[in-house]
Specification:
Strand order of the largest sheet: 2-1-3-4-5-12-11
CATH class of the largest domain: Alpha Beta
Distance between the termini: 28 Å
Bound molecules: beta-D-glucopyranose
Order of helices and strands: HEHEHEHEEHEHEHHHEHEHEHEEEH
Largest sheet: 7 strands, mixed
Number of strands: 13
Strand content: 15-25%
Length: about 375
C-alpha cells in the first residue's frame, strides 16, 4: 500500500516536472509537451527479460500520460553509445542505462557526463568510470544465493549424509558485472557443500581446484566463469551443456543438479539435459520469471526461478530520475564500487519461485494473467 501511494506521488511529481514529456520514442505522447527529459537504453530486444522492462516502463509512463523514449542496443556497445548520443542530442537531462558490457559502457556514460546529462545505471553496473550518478538494482548476490540454496535443499532432502551429487555450474557473460555477483552468491552457498563432498562439480576443473576456498577474488571467479559462461546466449548455453554432457561419463549423470544463471539459458540447458538418456532426473535454477520459464516450471521442465519484480526497479529508476532532474540526490540504501567510485545505490529484494508457489507469487499477485499459461 505504502509503495502504491509513493508511486502515485512520484507520478504526480513526474507530471508537474514534465519528466517524460515529448520525444518521438515508444509510448503515447501528451500534446503540447516540451522536450524529452529522460531516455532509457536497454541492452537487447532478443531476451524476454528486457522486453519485460520495456513494458513496465511503458506501463508506468502511460499512467501519467507522457512519453519516454526507450532504445535498445542489441548487444552492441557501439550502438549503445550511439543511442546515448542520440538522446543527448534530443536534450535529455537524465539517461537510464542498462549496459550491454559494463566496462565498455564507460565511454557512453562519459559522453553523457560531458554533456551535463546524469546517468542512472539500471540493473547492471557501468564499470570503471566516475560518470555514473546512481545505481538501481536487485540484490544480485541474493539471486545467486537463492540458486545455491535451492540446489542444496534438494540435494540434502531428508538425507544430511548425501554425498557425490553431480553438480553442473553455468554463468552469465563476463562482460556483465552481475554475472560475478550471481556467481558470488551461488558459490557462497554451494562451496561448503562442494568442499564436504555433497556435490562434485562435473564441468569446471577451475571450480574443482578452488573448492576449498570460501572467498574467491574477482580474478578467481573469472577463471571459473571463463569455463562455464553462457555469454547470456541461449545457443552458447545449449552448445556448452551438450559439450559438457558429451565429455561426462555416465556416473556424472544420473541425478543432476544444475546452477543455471537465468531463465533463457536455463531452458536451453534443461532441454539439453532432458535429451540425454543417461540423465535420470535433474534440478535446474533460473531467474527473471520469464513467461516461457513460468510455463516450464508449471510443466516440471525447470525447477525454479528467481522472481525480480521489474515494476520495483522501474519505480526506483523513475524516482531517481525525478530527484536528479530537480537537482537533488536520490535516496540510497547502500553503494556499489564500480572500480572508479562508490556509486550510491538502491536495491530491491528477490523471491524464489517454484512449482509450489508459482501461482501465488506470479498470478495471484497480479504480475501475470492466468490465461497466459496452461495447466496452472
Ligand atoms: C540481469 C538478468 C538477465 C541477464 C541476461 C543480467 O544482468 O540481471 O536479469 O537475465 O542479465 O540478460
Amino acid at each position: 500500500m505504502k509503495r502504491i501511494l509513493f508511486f502515485v506521488l512520484v507520478l504526480t511529481i513526474a507530471l508537474s516536472t514534465s519528466l517524460f514529456a515529448g520525444g518521438d520514442g515508444e509510448g503515447s505522447g501528451k500534446s503540447g509537451a516540451k522536450g524529452l527529459a529522460v531516455g532509457v537504453v536497454l541492452p537487447t530486444k532478443d531476451e524476454p527479460r528486457w522486453i519485460q522492462d520495456e513494458q513496465r516502463f511503458k506501463d508506468a509512463i502511460k499512467k501519467a500520460g507522457y512519453t519516454v523514449e526507450i532504445l535498445f542496443s542489441q548487444g552492441d556497445s557501439a550502438r549503445e553509445k550511439a543511442n546515448v548520443e542520440a538522446l543527448i542530442a534530443k536534450g535529455v537531462k537524465v539517461i537510464i542505462l542498462c549496459p550491454h558490457d559494463g566496462a565498455a559502457a564507460g565511454a557512453a556514460a562519459e559522453a553523457a557526463a560531458n554533456a551535463g546529462v546524469k546517468v542512472i545505471s539500471y540493473d547492471r553496473l557501468i564499470r570503471d568510470t566516475a560518470a555514473v550518478d546512481y545505481y538501481v538494482t536487485f540484490d544480485s548476490v541474493a539471486v545467486g544465493a537463492a540458486f545455491g540454496q535451492y540446489l542444496v535443499d534438494k540435494a540434502m532432502g531428508m538425507d544430511d549424509m548425501a554425498k557425490g551429487k553431480n553438480l553442473y555450474l553455468y554463468a552469465g557473460a563476463a562482460s556483465d558485472n552481475n554475472a560475478f555477483l550471481f556467481f558470488e552468491g551461488a558459490w557462497s552457498v554451494l562451496q561448503p557443500k562442494i568442499a564436504d563432498g555433497t556435490f562434485v562439480v562435473r564441468n569446471s576443473s577451475e571450480a574443482v581446484a578452488m573448492k576449498g576456498k570460501a572467498m574467491l577474488s574477482r580474478a578467481e571467479q573469472g577463471k571459473i566463469i571463463g569455463q562455464v559462461t553462457t555469454n547470456w546466449d541461449f545457443n552458447v548455453a545449449k552448445n556448452l551443456a551438450e559439450a559438457n554432457l558429451t565429455s561426462a561419463m555416465d556416473d556424472a549423470k544420473g541425478e543432476v543438479y544444475i546452477a543455471a544463471p537465468n531463465d533463457g539459458t536455463a531452458r536451453a540447458i534443461a532441454d539439453a539435459f532432458a535429451a540425454d538418456p543417461a540423465v535420470e532426473m535433474f534440478y535446474i535454477t533460473g531467474q527473471d520469471a520469464e513467461k516461457a520459464s513460468v510455463q516450464y516450471i508449471i510443466d516440471g521442465k525447470q525447477s525454479m526461478t528467481v522472481f525480480k519484480d521489474v515494476r520495483m526497479l522501474v519505480n526506483d529508476a523513475i524516482k531517481a530520475a525525478v530527484a536528479l532532474l530537480e537537482g537533488g540526490s536520490p535516496s540510497a540504501t547502500g553503494a556499489y564500487n564500480n572500480g572508479a567510485k562508490d556509486v550510491p545505490a538502491i536495491q530491491s529484494e528477490v523471491i524464489t519461485v517454484d512449482k509450489m508457489n508459482v501461482k501465488m507469487k506470479l498470478i495471484d499477485s497480479g504480475y501475470y494473467k492466468a490465461s497466459d499459461f496452461k495447466g496452472l
